[in-house]
Amino acid sequence: MRELGLRSPASRVAGIVYFGRMLDKIRQHQKGQLPSDYQANLGRGFDSACTKFLRIDYNRLVDRVDQGGTDDEILQWCFGMGYCPTQDEIYVWNEFMRKRGWNDELSEILKRRKKEAGMAGRSEIQTMFTFIDADEGRLLVGNQKLRPAPD
After folding, report:
1. CA–CA gap between residue 41 and residue 95 (Å, rounded)
2. Where do the structural domains in the chain lie, given as residue ranges?
């Protein structure tokens, strides 16, 4: 488990899951503070899914984040340059993303990553979001956090 100062993928910006975490990763990478094992997937995987959902080019998003601004300002820029989803589309996106790894094409990857992280026996970890939260110390076991979540 590691504490990296990244938001949970379930955290929302204007109701949209994962977007804030992607911005955190971009900002940490720009500061040279993102661990190398996270850098290999920048713009890929969930980052790619999120930018496709918003119909914005990942590299243009990186350039926009580099200019500064709040999460909401950057998301509004995405809406203007790409696509502004409806509340129904956001609901479908959120539900799709929060269940990734549960009985889908990512299930085997989740199983492998749990094993590599020494969490193979953790039955409460059934999705990629819960794996990420457990790996980064945010997942509750019983009534106790494994590690405090970053603010």
Report:
1. 22
2. 12-145
